[in-house]
Design brief:
This protein has two helices and nine strands, in the order H-H-E-E-E-E-E-E-E-E-E. By secondary structure, it is α+β, with helices and mostly antiparallel strands. The protein has one domain. The N terminus is likely disordered.
Length: about 160
């Protein structure tokens, strides 16, 4: 099955935008955007929890995690206020063929998972793609980038 042309263009635009300073999905940027920004962009979530929202859009499922407090949250260790986006997981609802060779050398190929999927990560821009063994994109994960390391919490242990 193929995804809509709009979603493919969105994902390809994201990949081609790797040279930009801030990176995220649909203008939602980890460690910068707030929950209010997400709701304004994506509307009412299908499911809402204390520190995450789940959205079902026409072609994708989106799970957004937020900081629960300074240096706390599902992705802990970030010095951002409560309600700030920590990560975004985008899951295509239909198979999307993607040529990983177009990702460029900035993406590092990770290990093969037990389901035979392979991860490709760009820490400079804070994005990870998971490709299935059939060559379709399983997930696109947006996380803090290497440039965000200045916002790391100091380890108090």
């Amino acid at each position: 099955m193929r995804l809509s042309l709009g979603l493919i263009i969105t994902l390809l635009t994201a990949v081609s935008a790797l040279g930009q300073m801030s990176f995220g999905w649909k203008g939602i940027i980890p460690l910068t955007s707030s929950r209010e920004d997400v709701l304004e962009t994506l509307g009412t979530p299908k499911q809402s929890y204390e520190h995450s929202d789940l959205f079902f859009l026409p072609d994708v499922k989106v799970n957004v995690h937020y900081s629960s407090a300074l240096c706390e949250g599902a992705l802990s260790g970030w010095r951002v206020r409560k309600g700030t986006v920590l990560s975004i997981l985008v899951v295509p609802l239909r198979g999307m063929q993607f040529d990983v060779s177009k990702l460029g050398k900035d993406f590092v190929k990770g290990s093969v998972n037990d389901d035979l999927s392979v991860e490709y990560t760009n820490v400079e821009k804070g994005i990870r793609f998971t490709e299935s063994d059939t060559g379709t994109v399983n997930t696109v994960y947006y996380m803090p980038s290497k440039k965000d390391s200045k916002q790391r919490c100091l380890n108090k242990n």
